Amino acid sequence: MKMDDLAALMPKGPVTASPEVFQQLGAITRMLHDTLQQLGVMPKLQAAADGLPDARSRLNYIASKTAQAAERVLDSVDQAKQEHQCIAAETRKLATALIADPVRAVASGAVLNFVGDIEAHTSRIDQHLTDIMLAQDFHDLTGQVVAKVVTLATDLEDSLLKLLVQVVPPEQREKVTEMQGLQGPVVDTGNRTDVVKDQTEVDDLLASLGF
Amino acid sequence: MSNPAALKYLIVDDFSTMRRIVRGLLKEMGCNNAEEAEDGAVALAAMKAQKFDFVVCDINMPNMNGFDFLKAVRADESLKHIPVLMVTAEARKEDIVLAAQTGAAGYIVKPFTKATLEEKVLKIVQKIGAAA
Fold it and tell me: Rounded to the nearest 10 degrees, what angle do helices A199-208 and B93-102 cross at?
């Protein structure tokens, strides 16, 4: 529930609660805040909360990549099926011509034309199959993003666990490890200058390094 | 070493789908001799057990990532001559620079096309062939 939603639940008229209630609420809030700060939980919780918009962005990226892959595969299948239907139609046509008059079919160039057409059709089908194969890269890219989101969820869980274990002796409290390492796919390049947007930028960067 | 089809490739990636894609694309380029490894450690062991001419390697992998693998290859006298083409989703400039400084022969950012892979493999093979 968002703060705006909470605000909508507020009574329209004047608030009738006594000043003591507000004083108590204020004191509890302050005590909770101070306690969390003292326990050192707040920064970690804050970091986890800050990561949530990024998690949404990453999940959107997964949805986008899988949708793109599905569209790409379906488009390629449609086009490959059309090519296949053309081959079937041309084969039937040639068979009819060969049955009717084999000599004329060969002499008219129909057989040679058929061979040329089949080669062109199969070449295009092969390209569609390659496209279908390449579309499967979403598995790798989204898999890495899923791992990042799982890490974020784990961080949140760690923070909450850390909050809970404050009631046990300090020597039993587990340390929360910081998330480090590689970033994985860039889900939103936006205005970022620390990442490349495409292979051309990779090549330019490597060229500037003498590659 | 100027004919890519005559080389033996090692494809290193923790995602089997990506390994199959790279293997399939290499096959379309006429490069049929390829094997796979799921991380840097497995790849390093494979390279010590048998001879490979060209490595296509991911970066973000468990056990031993692509950078550590690359460092290990470059530090090994018997392996350091083998070109390693990085194919990765890591798009940070600092990663690209680090890969170049560590000795990567090329760098491709995922997702990529067949044309990009073909161009990079050919370029690396030609460069090594000219230097030999």
Answer: 50
- pLDDT for B68-80, tens place per residue? 999 999 999 999 9
Taken in order of first residue, the domains within chain B and their CATH numbers are: 4-125 (3.40.50.2300)
Q: Determine whether the interchain pair B60/A197 forms a contact, defined as Cβ–Cβ distance below 8 Å.
A: no
Structure token digits, residue A209: 């390094």
Nearest Cβ partner for B114 among A134, A195, A196: A134
For A34-65, letters b (16+ CB in 10 Å) and e give eebeeeebbebbeebeebeeebeebeebbeeb
ipTM of the modeled complex: 0.70
Identify which of B60, B106, B114 has the shortest CB distance to residue A144. B60
B29 Cα to chain A: minimum distance (Å): 12
Task: Show residues of chain A in contact with B28, CB under 8 Å.
Answer: 130
pTM, rounded to two decimals: 0.64
